[in-house]
Amino acid sequence: MLAELRTRLSETWTRRQLSQTARDVRDAHLTYLTPTKLRNLEDALERIGTDCIEGDCVEYGVALGGSAILIATRMTPDRCFTGFDLFGTIPPPGEADGEKSHERYKIIASGHSKGIGGDRYYGYEPDLYGKVKAQFARFGVPVDGQRIALVKGLFDATVSFKLEKRIAFAHIDCDWHDAVALCLERTWPHLSRGGIVILDDYNDYGGCRKATTAFLERRPDMRLVEATHNAILVKS
Known about the structure:
The protein is α/β, with parallel strands linked by helices and 236 residues long.
């Protein structure tokens, strides 16, 4: 009980440190991210700006668009944003994912998953892409296919970049092992030195943690610098 109270008080204090956009996307039920996770995104975006890290921003797993909108509004004007998502019901976990992931997917697949604050679960929305696009426009960052782009489809078919593409910041929020592993590997060649990757589900699903651990073992130039809430990796 005491630990839960401390957590609530900490999140309340952190919420007060957030930008107005971060508070607004939470109030509009557009993100599952806690205030602390959102604050970590804002800190990363501030850091790549202060350190003049070359490249654009990407997100894998847009869902309702809350964190994507935050990234698009808080990144510096010279950067572009691309969000990748199926914009439908999430695909099933794989063999490398744990029981918790498979149990979660059973609830989703059954049609009984609950949305934020009693809303309809985003994976059941008949036109999630259109809904997310409308929210981007509402927050003043319209999806124009140039500075702001949303790419619809499975990651293995859509996540690819031109050789010269540079990435300064990536937010990976796609739950399962195989998706996380793919996004890490396809981001790494384009990630600038000093670039930051944040993994939302590192402490939530074992598959995400497993994929991240294996990736770090293969890539000694990537450092895990924080993992209390969402995991933060930096390329050296």
